[in-house]
Amino acid sequence: MSSITAGNAEQYGNSRKLAARARLNSQYTIAEIGWFPWVARQLPLKSGYRVLDVGCGPGWFWAAAGELPEKLDLTLSDFSPGMVQEAVERCQPLPFASVTGQQADASALPFEDGSFDAVIAMHMLYHLPDPSGGIAEMYRVLKPGGFLAVTTNGAGNMRALYALTTVFGSPPFDPAGAAFGYDAAERIMRAQFGSVTMTKHPARLRVTEPEDVFLALTSYPPGETADEAQLAAFQDAINAAFQAGNGVLEVSKESGLFIGRKAP
Description:
- The structure is a single chain.
- By secondary structure, the chain is of the alpha/beta class.
- The protein has helices at residues 8-11, 16-28, 35-42, 60-64, 81-91, 131-141, 159-162, 175-179, 182-193, 210-217, 228-244, and strands spanning 29-30, 50-54, 73-78, 98-103, 116-122, 142-153, 197-200, 204-207, 249-252, 255-261.
- The protein has one domain (8-162, 169-202, 255-261): 3-Layer(aba) Sandwich (Rossmann fold), CATH 3.40.50.150.
- The chain has 11 helices and 10 strands.
- Strand 3 (73-78), helix 5 (81-91) and strand 4 (98-103) form a beta-alpha-beta unit.
- Helix 2 packs antiparallel against helix 10 (210-217) and helix 6 (131-141) packs across helix 9 (182-193).
């Protein structure tokens, strides 16, 4: 297993390594609307809702979401205390009714039943040994009528990038999409909620800087721990891909949003 889906304490103690991967999406995505604002527009949030963000990371979503309903009470939770601290610091100046942080294991959330109107879990369920158990916990803390929003990648996400990592012995596909992709998300969400809606974000990458590919894919093992010969072979593979594309690497993306609502 790639440690993009394991070894979370090392990978996510703070946002430094995550930022190397996020840069590819922030700098090179081609879309009518960016990922975070797009997700925010799909969420059926209402003024006054109590919202729990599970696996909040550094809080980038809320800072980039754009206009949101007024008077939201936001609870930011993550397994990493460092991420919680960074997220709270980023979100406290934003126009929420309240912002609190709580270090938490998504498989055993430290909140009472029916505590929240909405739970958000963005690109994090593939980190859990048992995603269905995590979704059951999120369901538990939802109020009747509340909704859970989950985002994840499809199995074909960014294949043109991950094909380059075969020099490290990695499979040529997104490890997150393989661990908890569209099929698993729909199956587990449907089992818990009875019905689920799924929407795909129409986007692609047009990467023009080979170094950003190198930095992103060596920000986690096996690339992060590769020896000099492997890194040289990886750089050669990147250069060949850009040469074949006349200086550009075109990459298809598969990222989607699943929403399930708890019965009233």
